[in-house]
């Protein structure tokens, strides 16, 4: 996905949900902070978007813009409508979010999760593809290990899981440094 495609996804999601503000919570939220993010981080053909003010309209987004929809077939990317609760995010993430709002979004506001918050959320999911995404963020210098650890400490998770995620960051940072 490109930044222009993300902007199109925001515009379309705002239109379908009849909401002028949407959260971008999946991996493509990285385009809010890094419009020219490396190709390895832009592999996904989907934008995970949650309506901010009309959360009950998430299914409308999924139906009109989701996988295998006419929108998907036409544009080669799709929008997955979700609830903001689909992501586990660090406390205070909204204050750090990156806003995408311009002519291409039709004035709609895409509230994109900041890179360190996104990485913490991805590590919480702990799928191989998510760990690889975070590893790439670290390797490309788009996030810093110490700040990522601070965001992990703000996740609403238990101490054992927090320790496991912090250990992963430490080991990965050491591996990348060698």
Give a structural overview:
The chain is of the alpha/beta class and 178 residues long. It folds into 2 domains: 3-114, no CATH class; 116-177. The chain is built from 9 helices and 5 strands. A 5-stranded mixed β-sheet has the order 3-2-1-5-4. Helix 1 crosses helix 3 and helix 8 (145-152) packs antiparallel against helix 9. The two termini are 31 Å apart. The model has no long low-confidence stretch (mean pLDDT 97).
Short overview:
With 178 residues, this protein is of the alpha/beta class.
Taken as a percent bin, the fraction of beta residues is: 5-15%
The number of helices is 9
* Strand line-up of the largest beta sheet: 3-2-1-5-4
Average residue-wise pLDDT: 97
Distance between the termini: 31 Å
SS elements, strand count = 5
The class by helix and strand makeup works out as alpha/beta
The rounded Rg comes to 16 Å
Please describe the biggest sheet, giving its number of strands, its sense, and whether it closes into a barrel: 5 strands, mixed
Low-confidence stretches: none
SSE topology string: HEHEHHEHEEHHHH
Number of domains: 2
Backbone shape: globular
Helical content stands at 40-55%
Question: What key attributes describe this structure?
Answer:
2 domains, 5-stranded mixed sheet, alpha/beta, globular, 178 residues, 9 helices
Chain-wise SSE layout:
Layout: H1 3-17, E1 21-24, H2 30-33, E2 46-51, H3 58-65, H4 70-75, E3 78-81, H5 93-96, E4 98-100, E5 109-112, H6 115-125, H7 128-139, H8 145-152, H9 159-177
Parallel strand pairs: 1-5, 2-3
Antiparallel strand pairs: 1-2, 4-5
Helix pairs in contact: 1-3, 6-7, 6-8, 8-9
């Amino acid at each position: 996905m490109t930044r222009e495609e993300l902007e199109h996804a925001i515009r379309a999601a705002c239109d379908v949900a009849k909401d002028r503000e949407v959260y971008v919570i999946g991996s493509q939220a990285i385009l809010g902070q890094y419009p020219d993010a490396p190709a390895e981080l832009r592999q996904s053909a989907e934008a995970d978007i949650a309506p901010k003010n009309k959360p009950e309209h998430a299914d409308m987004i999924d139906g009109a813009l989701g996988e295998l929809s006419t929108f998907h077939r036409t544009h080669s990317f799709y929008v997955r409508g979700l609830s903001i609760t689909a992501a586990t995010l660090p406390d205070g993430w909204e204050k750090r979010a990156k806003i995408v709002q311009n002519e291409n979004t039709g004035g709609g506001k895409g509230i994109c999760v900041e890179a360190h918050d996104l990485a913490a959320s991805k590590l919480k999911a702990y799928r191989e593809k998510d760990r690889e995404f975070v590893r790439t963020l670290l390797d490309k210098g788009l996030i810093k290990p110490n700040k990522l650890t601070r965001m992990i400490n703000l996740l609403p998770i238990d101490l054992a899981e927090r320790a496991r995620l912090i250990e992963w960051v430490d080991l990965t940072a050491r591996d990348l440094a060698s």
